[in-house]
Design a protein that fits this description.
Helices cover 4% and strands 42% of the residues. It is globular, with a radius of gyration of 16 Å. The longest helix is centred in the middle third of the chain and has 7 residues, at 86-92. The strands form two sheets. Strands 2, 4, 5, 6 and 8 form a five-stranded antiparallel beta sheet that branches. Strands 1-9-3-7 form a four-stranded antiparallel beta sheet, with no helix packed on it. With 162 residues, the protein is mainly β.
């Protein structure tokens, strides 16, 4: 798996909508232990276009890491997913920041960075390289829309372990 590129989302799969109807808003959506195969993961996201003609839209994203079997009776519990803090992003993301797109800055109270908005020129492409501090980490997407008919985003998301 080292050096392998995981195609998590492709524009041909469908659209990313606010409910995660077609494409899951958490990627990878299956259990994938990046930390078992390499020291870091390079994530590449590219927003290709918008469908459904929304009046306003934005895409937020955040990194999350797994705390395995957390809790009082820990042996059989599912992992707890924790968003990276600003300090953890600075220390563990090679770029020193989250998913902030061109001209966009900051992380909101829920840990989401804004990748792109209705004012962004498309396509928007970003790459972030994150150290594997635990076995698993992932990206959570948060698309927001106002108006339009079944609005969504066409995007691609890949992860390469190295």
């Amino acid at each position: 798996m080292t050096g392998k590129t995981h195609l998590l989302v492709t524009p041909g799969q469908g659209v990313v909508d606010a409910a995660g109807t077609v494409i899951d808003l958490v990627q990878p959506s299956n259990r994938l232990e990046f930390g078992a195969y390499g020291d870091e993961v390079s994530w590449t996201m590219r927003i290709e276009g918008v469908v459904g003609d929304p009046q306003w839209w934005s895409l937020g994203a955040r990194f999350e890491y797994a705390v395995e079997q957390a809790g009082a009776n820990f042996q059989y519990l599912a992992a707890t997913w924790v968003p990276y803090s600003v300090i953890e992003l600075a220390a563990n993301c090679r770029e020193g920041r989250g998913w902030e797109g061109p001209g966009l800055e900051g992380v909101d109270a829920d840990g989401f960075s804004t990748v792109a908005t209705h004012e962004s020129g498309l396509p928007v492409a970003l790459q972030r390289t994150v150290r594997c501090t635990t076995l698993r980490h992932r990206v959570r997407l948060r698309p927001l829309f106002t108006g339009g008919m079944n609005p969504g985003l066409r995007l691609s998301l890949t992860a390469q372990v190295h």
